[in-house]
Structure formats: structure tokens, C-alpha cells
Design goal:
It is a single chain. This protein has 2 helices and 3 strands, in the order E-E-E-H-H. By secondary structure, the protein is of the alpha+beta class. It has a domain of 44 residues. It has a 3-stranded antiparallel beta sheet. Strand 2 and strand 3 form a beta hairpin. The longest helix has 12 residues. The protein is flat, with a radius of gyration of 14 Å. It starts with 9 loop residues before the first strand and ends in a 6-residue tail after the last helix. The mean pLDDT is 87.
Length: 66
């Protein structure tokens, strides 16, 4: 039987002000690991690299609103 891959993170999202970019923080509950992201594009890039699967804008429903 193949080993199942599994990732678990606590995701926090916030903005410094109402017209600012969303920021993100992933926390790994199984290790003392925190990874911060200045924007959602960086978060998506991290997840794509971690899983080896491209998400791409077409699967996200277009571009991020301003």
C-alpha cells in the first residue's frame, strides 16, 4: 500500500487596512514552524511547491480583485 501524503496547517489571513493586500501565516501544528506570506500569490506559490501541483489562475476563477 502506498504511503499517504498529508499536510496540516493552521491558516491565518488578515489585512493591515481595508484596501491593503491580504497577508497570510501558516502554522504547522506538528512542529514549531511558522511561514509568513506578504500576499496571497506567495501563499499559492508555496502550496504549489509543497504539493507539486499547479493551481493556476484558471482554477482560481481569474485574477484577484483590487
Amino acid at each position: 500500500m502506498a504511503k499517504r501524503e498529508y499536510f496540516a496547517y493552521l491558516l491565518r489571513l488578515w489585512r493591515e487596512n481595508s484596501d491593503g493586500s491580504w497577508r497570510a501565516l501558516l502554522e504547522n501544528p506538528n512542529a514549531e514552524e511558522r511561514i509568513g506570506f506578504a500576499n496571497l500569490a506567495d501563499l499559492i506559490e508555496f502550496l504549489e511547491n509543497k504539493t507539486g501541483e499547479a493551481i493556476g489562475q484558471d482554477r482560481l476563477g481569474g485574477t484577484e480583485p483590487n
